[in-house]
Design a protein that fits this description.
This protein is α+β, with helices and mostly antiparallel strands. It contains eleven helices and 15 strands.
Length: 287
C-alpha cells in the first residue's frame, strides 16, 4: 500500500480544514468499509485520509422532535438497527437494515459514509428518498441542506464539494404512511441488490392520495419513478391500477447492465416490484 498522510481532527471544522477540494487523493474516512476495499484493490491511492473517528460521538446521535427524525451521519448501520426511535418512527428503515450487508459491516459502516460513497447498489438511499429525507452538509462556509434525491449526481458521484462533510439526515417520521422496500438479489439476501424498490404511500382507505416510488441498483443512481407515482396518485387500489403503475415504471426506468444482470433482465422486476410493494403496503396497514 502506498504511504499516505493520516490526519485525526478533533472537531468538524478542523476536519473540513484538512480537506482539499482541488485534490482528489484527499478523502475523509468514517467506517472505511468501502474505501479500504478500494485501497486494497488499488482502485484508489490516497494522498491524505482525514479520519472522522474523534468527531464521531457528536455526530452519531439519533433523535426525534416535533415529528422530525435526525440521524447523525456517523451513526453506524447497527446503531440505526438497534435504535428504538428508528424502530418506532421509521419502521421501513428498521425492516430493511437486517438485509443490508452482514453484521460485521453494519457494525462499522456509517450512514454518512454510505451516502457520500454514492454506490448505486446501497439499500438506504432509495428508502430515504421515498420518505422525503434531507441531507445536511457542512463546509468552510457553513451548512446547507440537500434533498436526498438530489445528492447523487452520477455513478459514484455526488453534489458534495471536496471539502464538505455530511453531518446528519433529517426526515419526517413515517407516521400513518405505508411503506415497503423490495430487494432483488442474485446471491444471498444480504448481498448487494440487483434491484431495490422503495414505495411510500399516503392512503385513505382504498384511495392512494400520494405516492413516492424510487428505484435503485438497476440504475446508475437512485431514481424517482414519477410516471408510476402519477399513475398511482388519486387512484383506488385494484389490479388495473397496479398494472398501469407497473407499466409506467417499466417504461420510465433506464436500467444498466452489470454483473448482477442485463438491462433487459432488470426491467421486468421493476414492473413486478411496483405491484408487490403496493400490495405489501396496503396489506400491512398504517404503522
Amino acid at each position: 500500500m502506498t504511504p499516505f498522510d493520516l490526519r485525526e481532527p478533533e472537531s468538524l471544522q478542523e476536519a473540513i480544514s484538512f480537506l482539499d477540494p482541488q485534490d482528489p487523493t484527499t478523502r475523509a474516512i468514517a467506517g472505511g468499509t468501502a474505501l479500504m476495499l478500494m485501497m486494497k484493490a488499488g482502485v484508489f491511492q490516497p494522498g491524505r485520509l482525514v479520519s472522522l473517528r474523534k468527531v464521531a460521538r457528536q455526530y452519531s446521535q439519533i433523535a426525534s422532535a416535533d415529528g422530525e427524525i435526525r440521524l447523525g451521519a456517523m451513526a453506524t448501520l447497527s446503531d440505526l438497527a438497534h435504535s428504538p426511535i428508528v424502530r418506532r418512527e421509521l419502521p421501513v428503515v428498521a425492516d430493511a437494515l437486517p438485509m443490508l450487508s452482514n453484521v460485521r459491516v453494519r457494525n462499522v459502516a456509517t450512514l454518512g459514509g454510505q451516502l457520500a460513497h454514492a454506490d448505486p447498489h446501497t439499500d438506504l438511499p432509495p428508502i430515504l428518498i421515498a420518505l422525503g429525507a434531507r441531507i445536511v452538509a457542512a463546509g468552510p462556509d457553513g451548512e446547507r441542506t440537500i434533498p436526498a434525491e438530489e445528492l447523487v449526481s452520477g455513478y459514484y458521484a455526488t453534489v458534495l464539494a471536496g471539502n464538505e462533510l455530511i453531518t446528519d439526515v433529517r426526515l419526517p417520521a413515517q407516521g400513518s404512511r405505508r411503506a415497503a422496500y423490495l430487494k432483488w438479489t442474485t446471491r444471498s439476501a444480504d448481498d448487494w441488490p440487483a434491484l431495490g424498490v422503495a414505495i411510500v404511500l399516503d392512503v385513505d382507505g382504498n384511495l392512494i392520495r400520494d405516492a413516492r416510488v424510487v428505484v435503485s441498483a438497476a440504475t446508475d443512481r437512485p431514481t424517482r419513478l414519477t410516471a408510476a407515482e402519477d399513475a398511482l396518485r388519486g387512484g383506488h387500489m385494484d389490479e388495473a391500477l397496479l398494472r398501469r403503475a407497473g407499466e409506467a415504471a417499466g417504461e420510465q426506468v433506464d436500467p444498466v447492465s452489470d454483473a448482477r444482470g442485463s438491462a433487459d433482465y432488470k426491467r421486468k422486476p421493476v414492473s413486478v416490484s411496483i405491484g408487490r410493494g403496493i400490495r405489501q403496503c396496503m396489506a400491512e396497514g398504517p404503522s
